[in-house]
Amino acid sequence: MGLENFMKNGVPFIVMIIVESGEVGMITLGKAAMDNGMSNLVYVVYYNSLGTLLLFPFFIFRFFRSDRPPLTLNLIFRFFLLGLIGICFLQIFAYAGIGYSSPTLATAMGNLIPGFTFLLAVIFRMETLDVRRLTSQAKVLGTIIAISGAFVMTLYKGRLIQLFSSASNLPYIQLMSQQSNWILGGICLAITCICSSMWNILQTATVKEYPDEQTIVFFFCFFGTIQSAIYSLLVERDPEAWALRPDISMIAIIFAAVFGSVFRTTVFTWCLRKKGPVYVSMFKPLGMVIAVILGTIFLGDELYLGSIIGGSIIAVGFYTVMWGQAKEKYMAVAVDDFCALESTPPRNHLLQK
């Protein structure tokens, strides 16, 4: 009984902590590689190329070993759009934003995704909005709170919070340059959250029509790699920028390919099937804490008061949206159970011995 309970509750809990830690580690390594001179465009192309190569044998194995619906031109076009939104736009903007700001800001801004996804789901009529219901009010209020927190984090840095060592006094011009880069990074990360929400909506519709996650992930990486490579070759024309060096850049590429493209997708799919999307989403704010620790220790990032205040506001909005979604699903299950009970005909106990 104890082992069964651990497999049901303990393993998903441990796995999600590993996933969040690994995701922040991937962002931190990417930031370190870019600080070391690697182009964010080159980084995105290289790690997605390696991820596609790693996914290819699994795709071939499933393609010949399992029955699946036929691939249509409409599905291929959806895979193309998933790659365009999820890699060519999302990841390029994401790592540009991380380069201008920090992994802490990136992970905190990631908590905007459920709110933006909710707004897009309402626009595309994938989710209903009834302002008279408490659950809908909670989701709307949580979205507004989270967006307000993002504005605070982007536009207000505040005073420096010294954790381990005292920072040197920087010249005024350098401080102003850092402030402008911080705002630009926040804007790039906000665009990333919108792209991620659009990708979630399109992915949900695609999975419902073609329920084979590994095939979707492979084509998503395949098309996204080609699209980002074409764009990056047009923008990044310096041959030196494409040279791979045996340093932190290569470590970041390998880790992102193995973890981001292969492991994370598989684990997320397993946890979603076991515990549901609400449980998985509840671990998202944990990334802020991990990002602060890793960024401060390994990158020497500076922690500002605005990040703490804005991140706390975003977390409140995030959990408000999650509460509304969880409550709504609980009510829907209760209604379904009640309808099933009402439709069950009564048994005639007099006929039973």
UniProtKB/TrEMBL annotation:
The chain crosses the membrane at residues 12-33, 45-64, 76-98, 104-126, 138-156, 182-202, 214-233, 248-271, 278-298, 304-322. Keywords: Membrane, Transmembrane, Transmembrane helix. InterPro entries: EamA_dom (IPR000620), EmrE-like (IPR037185), WAT1-related (IPR030184). One of its GO terms (cellular component) is membrane. Pfam families: EamA (PF00892). One of its GO terms (molecular function) is transmembrane transporter activity. Residues 27-154, 185-322 form the EamA domain. It is a multi-pass membrane protein. The keyword Membrane applies. It is found in: Membrane. Belongs to the drug/metabolite transporter (DMT) superfamily. Plant drug/metabolite exporter (P-DME) (TC 2.A.7.4) family. This is WAT1-related protein. It comes from Daucus carota subsp. sativus (Carrot).
